[in-house]
């Protein structure tokens, strides 16, 4: 974003978001922006905050030599935002003036507006963040990934996570209006220039939906047949429900969260697809009949989605993982009981951690002696993505960037 007088409100809101995430540990999705911000300013504030979080380590490397001691967080975040804007090509004088004005307006920052001015005037010219090493993932994620994939792979993943992720969409069968983009081998379309999604051709007519290429692969691996009874266990916000319904399955979509299920209903309505919606805790729900196929997209650490959620490294410390692993195992055991004898269950998580993928699968195979893995048979799937167990490991550095996922198809003997 280029500096300009109209962007002061977006800028102050962006600093507020950074204070909430980095100071109070709030998730980006939960931060409430101030009332009275226009739609475009709201979007700009969110974009600025996300970009600063994604580049935070690089930004701090630029600032560190210019600061004798760490200023209060609210001041530091004004400086961080200004460094990002300079790196993004905004003119120095505009960025400095507006950062100083922002500091003057805040009760907690006004006494340090002189410092803001001095530091920003001392920034190198140009501010080249891309020349610095990509931000590293926190230790609780990085260490197990180095162990699982090796150091080079982790560096490649971190390089991708420092970039603005592309937007992929899944076309509906027989779609007429599609936005321009590159068709990936799996059939997802990577948009050439996303801009405002709701303005793209085919959005209003429901000809496609936004869904990362990796997220779309679980249902592609399932090989759904028309008329099959399919249960989507953790369904919201519903990208995979749409795929299942579009493939002609009779879909039951279940999720514990009513507000999130409302988004599934909206998505079905826009795309003209249908599914039975159930709001329930899968750990207590009872199925009335068994299913031909079940998709379990289990709640997880979401470590495969750091590109889109750059706040996660700052608000999570890995302490939730053990609880999530136990929940995934309990959901998996329960879901297996709803399968027809010849049925298949696709288990997936958007996690990079083996604990929520490969190890979870190995533990399930031990708990259920009759359970077997069906290796994928898709011509476009690179064989090196298939694990020794027959699961699929998707990494963020594949195909120029995708979410990290683990997917496995299970059958009971
Ligand atoms: C990874 S998200 C699912 C994403 C979804 N499948 C999609 O493609 O859009 C995990 C979901 O699990 C749901 N969930 C968590 N615990 C659950 C439970 N005990 N029973 C049912 N749903 C649960 C959450 O509300 C969340 O929507």
TrEMBL record:
GO biological process: methylation
SUPFAM superfamilies: NusB-like (SSF48013), S-adenosyl-L-methionine-dependent methyltransferases (SSF53335)
UniProt-annotated catalytic positions: 350 (nucleophile)
Coiled-coil annotated spans: none
Entry's Gene Ontology molecular function annotations: methyltransferase activity
Amino-acid positions noted as binding S-adenosyl-L-methionine in the UniProt annotation, renumbered to this chain: 234-240, 255, 281, 297
Record protein name field: Methyltransferase domain-containing protein
Lineage, top ranks: Bacteria, Pseudomonadati, Pseudomonadota, Alphaproteobacteria, Rhodobacterales
């Amino acid at each position: 974003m280029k500096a300009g007088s109209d962007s002061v409100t977006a800028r102050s809101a962006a600093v507020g978001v950074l204070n909430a995430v980095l100071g109070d540990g709030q998730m980006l999705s939960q931060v409430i922006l101030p009332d009275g911000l226009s739609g475009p300013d709201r979007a700009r504030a969110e974009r600025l905050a996300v970009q600063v979080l994604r580049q935070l380590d690089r930004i701090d490397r630029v600032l560190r030599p210019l600061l004798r001691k760490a200023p209060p967080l609210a001041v530091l975040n004004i400086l961080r935002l200004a460094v990002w804007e300079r790196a993004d090509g905004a003119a120095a004088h505009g960025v400095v003036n507006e950062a100083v004005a922002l500091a003057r307006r805040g009760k907690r920052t006004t006494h340090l507006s002189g410092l803001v001015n001095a530091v920003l005037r001392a920034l190198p010219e140009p501010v080249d963040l891309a020349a610095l090493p990509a931000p590293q993932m926190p230790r609780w994620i990085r260490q197990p990934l180095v162990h699982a994939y090796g150091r080079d792979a982790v560096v490649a993943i971190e390089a991708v996570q420092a970039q603005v992720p592309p937007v992929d969409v899944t076309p509906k069968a027989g779609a007429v209006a599609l936005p321009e983009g590159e068709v990936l081998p799996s059939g997802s379309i990577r948009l050439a220039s996303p801009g405002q999604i709701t303005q793209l051709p085919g959005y209003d007519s429901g000809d496609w939906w936004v869904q990362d290429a990796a997220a779309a692969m679980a249902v592609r691996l399932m090989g759904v047949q028309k008329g099959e009874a399919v249960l989507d266990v953790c369904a919201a916000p519903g990208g995979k429900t749409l795929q299942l319904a579009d493939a002609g399955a009779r879909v039951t979509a279940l999720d514990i969260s009513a507000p999130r299920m409302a988004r599934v209903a909206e998505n079905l309505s826009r795309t003209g697809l249908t599914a039975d919606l159930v709001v329930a805790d899968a750990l207590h729900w009872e199925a009335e009949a068994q299913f031909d196929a079940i998709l379990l997209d289990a709640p997880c650490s979401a470590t495969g989605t750091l590109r889109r959620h750059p706040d996660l490294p700052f608000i999570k410390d890995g302490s939730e993982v053990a609880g999530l692993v136990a929940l995934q195992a309990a959901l998996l055991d329960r879901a297996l009981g709803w399968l027809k004898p010849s049925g298949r269950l696709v288990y997936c998580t958007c996690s990079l951690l083996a604990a929520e993928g490969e190890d979870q699968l190995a533990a399930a195979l031990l708990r259920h002696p009759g359970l077997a893995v069906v290796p994928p048979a898709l011509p476009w799937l690179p064989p090196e993505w298939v694990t020794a167990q027959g699961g699929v490991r998707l990494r963020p550095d594949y195909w120029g960037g995708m979410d990290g996922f683990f997917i496995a198809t299970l059958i009971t003997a």
